Amino acid sequence: MESFSELIKNRRSMRKFTTEELTQDEVVALMKAALMAPTSKRSNSWQFVVVDDKETLKRLSMCKAQAAQFIADAALAVVVTADPLVSDVWIEDASVASIYLQLQAEDLGLGSCWVQVRERMAPSGIPAADYVREVLDIPLQLQVLSIIAIGHKGMERKPFNEEHLQWEKIHLNKYGGNGDERGESEQ
Length: 187
What we know:
Oligomer: single chain
Radius of gyration: 19 Å
């Protein structure tokens, strides 16, 4: 990538992957990025389960009734977990690591998509996190936040169009502030 600005403009959720596998170097680069993600008080509350087994990917793709089926076609899925006994902000720590994985994937020219697991339900009616925990033998103390599906892009996506930026959601100095109050006092 030429710059971080280009990286974030080009990173789009990818739910369609080719059948090409990832190289060992690509997987190592992805996991290095996850392990470099900052955490509160450097607690490193996160842990990652890396899945490339096709049958397991297929089982993981059934963790939710919808919006997870594409995991079966990914070359890799990284299940992002964290230990709430290690950090009270484990959700934030695991979220940052999830995003680092996605940004590293884009930098490598790979596609990725976040599959939300925490607070979602499996088709059987059990929590999606419990379903994933059972498939992967994840210990009870670890909470499952997300699954990041990664693979070679199976389609082209246009970069984010900056014309769609919602500048009205930016507030200066206070909610609803647009900078006028400062200008009025200076006149």
